[in-house]
Batch of 3 targets.
Target 1
Amino acid sequence: MPLLLGTTMALGMLFGFQLAGNSGRAGNSRTASGATQQLLDLLRYKYVDSVRIDTLETQAIETILQHLDPHTVFIPARELADANADLEGGFSGIGVEYLMINDTATVVYVVENGPSEKAGLQAGDQIVQVGNEPIAGKKMQGPDLRRRIRGAYNSQVSLGILRQGQPKTVTITRGNIPLPSVDAWYMATPTVGYLRINKFAETTYREFMDAANALLRQGMKKMVLDLRGNTGGYLTAATNVADELLPDNLKLVSTRGLHTKEKVIYSSKPGLFETGDLVVLLDEFSASASEVLAGSLQDNDRGTVVGRRSFGKGLVQEQYDLSNGGAVRLTVARYYTPTGRSIQKPFNGNRGDYMHEVLARHGADSLQAQLTDKVDSSQVFKTRKGKILYGGGGISPDVLVAFDTTRIPKTAIGLYNNGLLSDFSFLLFRQQQAAIRGYSSARAFAEGWQLPANAWERLLQMAAADSIQIGAVPASIKADVLQRVKANTARYVWRGTGYVQVMQPGDRVLQKALEILK
């Protein structure tokens, strides 16, 4: 039973955190009552042996939540800070990105003007000790290392590092580290601006306005808004962005629940991009608040939605703190698009089927099957201009770009496992760093820099050393893998913008958007 609870909780946490919808912290629940609490009290004060009441309490909470929807989740106290930081748009830490290479945390990026850069930390430094605790070679998981490195604002942490084999000690004063939600924006063509939002956090609207205004100054007449992989966040952040793209007094979204009054949100102010041509990109991992934004635009006949049907997570969560230091994100309502479509896809009570429904879509053997899979054609809705839309969960694209099941064949899957591709990309970047940093922009790098001629052979050798055997792959797959390696190296200098620009020529969804806007 503990193993079963742990497994189901892991799945629930994965989708509960990543697909958390309107996660505003709405109150506190500091008392418990009823038979469950009575039983815990009896075990605490009467049971013959010593028991871990906190563990039993957590298991009881998780078991109860298993009978509810898949997105009502319990967040243990040890994970609450990380879960909140993602939506708050930042945290207190040292400002580095790292990879676990050969069981050692290796710094791959240092935040510009952040605490680590001020203390002299560099990309390539290996972190072998935090405070007095050695950490190298311990196969430490990401959350465990983060908890050791992060801490209170203005506090200090001492890191033992290896730099080119030489030991050093660096003392870093922790500071506020942003977690950007608008992580890529650039001019994809002389008139088309590209902007990607990876989540909807407290800082998203301000980031969107800054990026969009910068693109307008560079000559943007048309926009590609990329919401692929955006698993949601704060509802207000999504509706604020929608308000900038739609005229006044249009319905954006409504929410309804058994114990909550119906709430309807309208556009209410002049927006910065209400008339220019617009394409919105979606995929099967676009969820919650990103579906609200896409649905508000599609239902109001604003722009074209391109890609694949979104996840179908239309549940509103509110976060309540618990007395054990954890919190529960509780579903309190459902989202409805302006035409009245429910965003939430069906849930038959089987969490496994629900979680893996997205993977089943990729098995569809035709474009039409991928487009209509699980969409209820009996639920017909019309926009103001007469466009026909269907209910049944998620936001279906106006223009489908089907998932390419041949993109990553089984013979090449090993390249994407265990972080191999990321590790190889960074090692290549470290060797070629001077040449890469010599380019003035990500565009210049994308157009001018070439991978070493033996990059593929070196990648296969690194895979074989890690007991990953790669069979023969078609030339197209080899080219795609190497393009991702190049994009990863660009990311170490130009972040998300560099990655997207390098990938643009082979990004079928983005290319379809540019074709529509041409």
Target 2
Amino acid sequence: MNKRRIRIGIDVGGTFTHAVAINAEDFSLVGTTKVPTTHTHPNGVAQGIIDSLFELLESSRIDPDEVVLIAHSTTQATNALLEGDVAPVGILGMGGGVEKAKARSETNIGKIELAPGKFLHTFHRFLDTSQGLDKNKAQELIEELRSEGAQVIVAAEVFSVDNPQNEDTIVELCRSMNLLAVNTYDISQLYGLRTRTRTAAVNASMLPRMMETADMTEQSVRAAGIKAPLMIMRSDGGIMDIQEMRRRPILTMLSGPAAGVAAALMYVHITDGIFIEVGGTSTDISAIRNGKALVQTATVGGHRLYLRTLDVRTVGVAGGSIPRLKHRKIYDVGPRSAHIAQLNYASFSHIPAGEKIDIQLIEPRAGDPDDYIALQLPDGTRATVTPTCAANLLGLIPEDNYAYGNQQSVRTAFEALAKFIGDTTPQKLAESLLRRAAPKIANVVADLINEYHLDENLLTLSGGGGGAGALVPFTARMMNLPFTIAPNTEVISAIGVALAMVRDTIERTVINPTERDILNIRKEAEESVLRMGAAPETIEVQIEVDPQKNIVRAVATGSTEMRSRDLSTAKLTDSELEKILRHSLRGSIQLLEKIAELSYLLVYRAVTVNKRLLGLLKQKQNQIRVIDRDGVIRLQIADGDALLSTKENMNSALRDLIERHTIYGDAGREIPGVYIVFRGRILDLSGLIDAEQILALASLELKDIPEQENISLIIQKP
């Protein structure tokens, strides 16, 4: 009997820590469990991670040898920022010659505000390296920093990204003195000494506590007999091994919503859309384009860090938000939730028909407004109506959804509230509640669409989290957008942790990068995820060039194992795939044709016509779709071009396509985005800005395939 290959994901939430076991062969759910998140335990949230793991192994009868990966999220870094639970940091700045004064100033960053009233305190010394590094003087300055209270040292030298020797020497010196230490170039390879020093200081401040947690978690996992890799969720939606977390714990900072976004990509298979993860108290909203989550530069206390995080917007409304009453009308919903106010949901209570309910207006917590609605029930308990209750009353939640509740209780609660308010019906009241709640989400969705210039004709709203059924369908209806609710939505974040890819980002400041510069950075990113346990054959690297900031960025992703694809299993037919494709296309479809079939990926071109200005204008578009035999759309382009070619003819065909679709305007030359489909892979070259860069990287990625093998070239018009 073949052993199962189990991936375990553990998500640390505000109230519960969820653990799931996923069969790596078919992504089926093997088992789930949840335990209270152990915020107040002496071991912190790590204790809940361990408890949930052992309970999952026992309840799902999982043999430790079946586990191929364990990954968990952590709130510890974020909590450290919010609570100021960080170690004091000593900064040893270095520089010489004409750069000495600048280096002294930019490494002396003072105290960093982490949250209102919470600070990271730093101490500073400077070492003149004009005549080389004096180890005796350095040791003296390090001792001074330690005597002031520094628990971790940051070595910061101007231009260390070009020559890190002095920073490395200081780190080794600190370790010989039994002091934790980090350097700045190891955190970021971008120029900008002040920002690099600040980022390294935040990273250093987390090291002592995070290393304790990492050690305890790893010891417990190994004691359970599990030999599989132990991974941690990153703020950019990927995972990294525990050794990397010991070196760069800052990468877990602000990673709370990352697990849900990982699930949106790997489990729900969103190509272009808005992922809306609805909890009980708040909702996290993020955008996905071309199968990738959108990221931004992190800030702490108003200061920019060299840290890439998912662009996740959080709003204070969710499935358990309490409505507020003024002048006999619901005028707002939230931000307080039933959980915070210690109220039950009416939809999850037992309220028989005709039950007498006393309507009260309460103050959930001392100092809050006293206009939140509460229901005093005859049995002495208290409840409230929430967006979840309203969606149940309006029939928006199907019976198999996690948010489906007691229909009789919901009707009784809304009847009592409608009678209390007067001149309304339960249905109108439920509609009014959702009309006050949903715009808070819709406004953020609209902001993301505008800021990232997302094409609404490609977008789908995708709901995750236990409260998704309460708000996502109504919001989608309000915005006239299609929607989906993720399967197993109540544990979607834990699923995301289990399925997330190993990831790392390498950034360099390079003016006018050459093909060699790009290939070197690509190689460095590939080697980084390889060290963290990614299987070589799974690694993909996307290159982005930012000419305004002179930054070249390589984002590498890979899996810890090669997932075997059973091609003998019956897949969807061409007619079934075309039905899915037609559903994804908006506008009148004039043509739908298959361009190429490459392994289990198929490339289609569609000609569509959209009417605008009451039908007076017609817009014709060539839309491109790449779909796999499972029916998952892997790439969708609203206006582009595609053709079938061979490896041998790739360069000439690519040059022709790029030139044909390049725009020459006042802003200069703008080339199209390029994608290449081959052997079941989609190579994304859309981040490059020069045809020669595209050709060089394409040649490297396809170097091992025969000259006569078919490939598909896809263009996204600028």
Target 3
Amino acid sequence: MKTYDVVMIGGGHNGLVAACYLQRAGLDVLVLEKNGWVGGAATSRELTPGFLYSNCSYVCSLFRPEIMRDLELPKHGLQVIAYEGGAVFTRDGDYIASYRDHDSHRREFARYSRRDAEAYERYAHDVTRQCRFIRPLLMRTAPDPFSFKPRDISELLHIGRKFGEFSADDMAQTLRFWTMSISDFLDEYFETDVIKVYLALSGIIGTALGPMSPGTAYVLLHHYMGEVDGSVGAWGYARGGMGAVTQALASSFQASGGTIRTGADVAKVMIRRGRATGVMLADGDEIRGNRVVSNADVKRTFLKLVDEDELPDAFVHRVKHFKMRGSSGKLNIALDSLPEFPALPKGSSCIRGDLHFTDSMERMERAYDDWKAGRYSADPFVDMVIPTTLDPTMAPPGKHFMSCFVQYCPPQLSGGDWTDRDRDAFAETVVSQIAEYSPGFRDRILHMEVRTPREIEAEVGLTEGNIFQGELTFDQLLFNRPVPGYAQYRTPVSGLYLCGSSTHPGGGVMGAPGRNAAAEILRDMKRKPVDMSPAHDVI
């Protein structure tokens, strides 16, 4: 029986990133994916003739440009098209537009409040300062503050030096920012509710928290740290849907000699004398590996794939209490024509970006109240995009694809598990909201895919449908992610590693967890990493 150098559990984007780096370092890597296609939450699938759906993740920004360069992803077909902005529709028939251009953005704010337009300059400066502090940490292994290893001490000193560049006031503001709610943070800058709502949306997407919950200010920052073509904070569409990201990764991996096996559902990590020796598939097939890397989330890995007897009790306790609460649903809709939104001026570029209907912080918080009560939101927050306005490859000529990401949608309803009837009623709530702002919208629908946390977990394997593989709150970041003492991609089982979004620096289609995990694996093997941008290498 062949023994691989590395067996990778899961063909999501982080698993493929790690596999690419390991294969390029001269290892023999096998990627196992339970579905008949790779991609995890970053997939493009044709579920109705002629239409490509970005089934789960739907926009691109966070994916690290260093990884794109290292793995030559544009050469393998990846192209990201930046979009200009978007809009929030208000109940009185107006709207507030957002633009990628800073001055245009500021002028739109001035239409509502000159004071807020002036405050936007200060807000943008303060958030940018936080981004500059955090972004370099994304591609570094988080140090263990309780370790006396030279690497950890050196990394702590590095962070301390960066933090020391702040003034005393900046230090205080940074500590507050990491722990405060997005609502409180925005109140310190703005007076207009709809402006605060537009900016708050990045603080609650994918998170089982409301805008008034402590910790949501950092979630906003997490979403601000991406870039498209060098434009920091910009968002865009991957041409051909989000599956284009993972298809490019798979192509890069296979071009280096790596092997991908689909339809391979891993049921168990095989362990002998405290060391991982391979995996057993659901069909009973055994695959040997000198090292096993799991792209699955921390709960699925250690509560389903590893026998608890192989793990320390304290570690299992921590894993069970790692916060991983699903809060999101998704509608993917094939449209016969481009929907009309009477509030927008004819020909407005806003329709090519993200569109929203929640126009007050109270509406957003009440939507979260429904989630807390075990209900999908009666007045949901919807992040809606129409990628085909910039990428015609996803639909037939004249037709369009719409993606609707929905907050808040609980993993279980108060009356029990989700049923198909519940799923359909949830979809109707979202469609009804869109139809309020877009006359004739229902008549344009040709096909619709509806995903609650039940469908997301069943297909993608994300526990409770949590898109970040764990909440991005301060208690679950850096050396606490996922478990203190095991935040450097290693686990209590020798030869078993994590590389998914449950690890530092967290969720989103970023690739940094996979890249960082590969660096640590190669370090343990005393192999020199190849094709890794040196400016961000681990100390």
